[in-house]
Amino acid sequence: MHEKQDESLTVLIEEFLTARATRKPSPHTLAAYRRDLCAVATLIAEDGTTPLPLDKLSITDLSPRVMRAAFARFAAPRAAASVHRAWSTWNSFFTFLVADGVVAGNPMPAVGRPRALLPQPKPLRGADTPEVLLASVAREDGRQRDPWPERDVAVLAVALCAGLRLSELLALRVDSLCGRAGERRVEVAGKGGRPRVVPIEADLDRVLDDYLDSRSRRFGARSVRPDSALLVDRHGEPLRRGGLQYLVESCYRRAGIGDRVPRGARLHALRHTFATRLAEDGASAAEIMRLLGHASLASSQTYIEVTAGQQREAVRANRTNRALRALVPSGDGPVGSGGDGGGFAEG
């Protein structure tokens, strides 16, 4: 046994989280690991005849019997998905400790866990909801203190027509948009360190060009340097998690579609809408899996590669892309050239 076995549990948790950080998980994922570990550890510390401060709890206190009792208490007020996630976190934690020689074995196989259920899609409700949302946000709202419809439409359009996660949207840079005309694409830093490329159709390309042109007028040409964040706030600073969530929520309110957004899937509903429409319009399971950056469609299904041409055909069939044409009409010259500065300047 490694000499670390007498170290406090809190020290070992921090070592585990540091090791996990090298895999580049999102801050949200790391925070979830910490919450699950600390929540169960707190129950263990409080369960003895003499409750201990959490930092006095030792790894040697965590026998299979103790872990079963703690998880039984942890599970009582929580949904099965939350319990399953916490079990997986603790299983990974003990696997790390075994590999590091801190403990001799992993007690988690002796701890019951609920069956993992595949999450159900939560797209926006209503056949025309994405079109209603985009059209509403494209109109400049006089009630806003500093309206910027080009930026707001760009955010919604990328989520609806490329199916990106919140963390992926925040990680985009101006030079994430690449490729020549007719072969445009966005390079995505995906979940779990899995990069992917999503094709961009001409309609979304025009929306993004119009947004970048408006941003250059607001903050100057230097604001659209290739290495700068693609999505920024009204001060030209990179959007953060809370700011992006608030922006999307405000777009829902302005469009009056709050009742069409599934509970618990606010921004993620845009990603789910992308996937649902792909399926409805004939995309295969392999195309959807590749475009969304899933490692597998289900736990028993292997990862399936599809060609770039198949991916582009799947995106081209997406009805939301076609809805963008009414927002930024194409012209003979580049988008944003000319006196009105783009399709939203007077809208």
Q: Classify the oligomer.
A: single chain
Unreliable runs: 1-5, 298-308, 333-347
Structural domains: how many:
2
Strand content: under 5%
Task: Return the string of H and E elements.
Answer: HHHHHHHEEEHHHHHH
Strand order of the largest sheet: 1-2-3
Verbal overview:
With 347 residues, this protein is mostly helical. The chain has two domains: 3-110, Orthogonal Bundle (DNA polymerase, domain 1); 129-326, Intergrase catalytic core (hpI Integrase, Chain A). The protein is 47% helix and 3% strand. It contains 13 helices and three strands, in the order αααααααβββαααααα. The chain has a three-stranded antiparallel sheet. Strand 1 (177-178) and strand 2 (185-188) form a beta hairpin. Helix 1 (9-21) packs antiparallel against helix 2 (27-47), helix 5 (129-138) crosses helix 9 (241-255) and helix 6 runs antiparallel to helix 8. The chain is elongated, with a radius of gyration of 24 Å. The N and C termini lie far apart (70 Å). Residues 1-5, 298-308 and 333-347 have low confidence and may be disordered.
